[in-house]
Amino acid sequence: MNTKQKLVKRVIIALFAAIIIIQNFIPFLGYIPLGPLNLTIIHITVIVVALSMGPLYGGIVGGIWGVITWIRAFVWPTSPLATIVFVNPLIAILPRILIGIVAGGSFSWLKKRLAKQSSAMVLAAILGSLTNTLLVLGQIYLFYRGKSQAMYALNVNELLPYLLGVIATNGLPEAILAGLVSPLIAGPLRKRLKNN
Q: Transmembrane region positions (predicted)?
């Protein structure tokens, strides 16, 4: 990779980092509030980077989102649950990094095995989105099931069904949206980057 290519990649990463920051702080650009939860659309930005630039860069942009999520839990939480859940960096940062790694890595693997690159992008985007949902909610169950009364006004036995409901009502729509939108953006960006 020559100096010009490195500079282009750094500029693109900075651009996507700025988009992530904007999505975090301007209402409805990154989170759509639904009661005590938020339908997340920021993951699409991370997936676009992963599909167009690879898992390393997707992980970097995902990490930026994770650090912002973690900091916001202390200073400007997105929901009442964020002050309890996202102060844990394993929940706030790790799943966001893994969105980019899983989406980018699975796309690299799938594009060699599927006839259409667009099909590989759709599947990789869905896998990246589900990675975030399953890791965040799975860790909430793992770390906070004993504190569920304070978090959700639920008893311990009702926490798992509640989290499964969140997967159905938030996680699946987020994954479908990522599968539809991410390839539309990442495909042209990927071609443009190859031409440079």
A: 7-26, 32-51, 81-110, 122-142, 162-186
Asked whether the beta carbons of 136 and 144 are under 8 A apart, the reply is: no
Distance CA 86, CA 28 (A): 19
- The burial class, CB within 10 Å (0-12 / 13-18 / 19+), for 195 is exposed
Hey, what CATH topology would domain 3-195 get?
A: Arp2/3 complex 21 kDa subunit ARPC3 (1.10.1760)
Query: How many Å apart are CA 90 and CA 57, to the nearest integer?
Result: 20
Q: Are 174 and 126 in contact (CB under 8 A)?
A: no
Q: Give the Cα separation of 43 and 153 in Å (integer).
A: 28
Question: Going residue by residue through the chain (196 aa), what tens digit of pLDDT does each one get?
Answer: 688 888 888 999 999 999 999 998 887 888 777 666 667 889 999 999 999 999 999 999 999 999 999 999 999 887 777 888 899 999 999 999 999 999 999 999 999 999 899 999 999 999 999 999 999 989 988 887 766 555 555 555 666 777 787 787 788 888 998 999 999 999 999 888 887 6
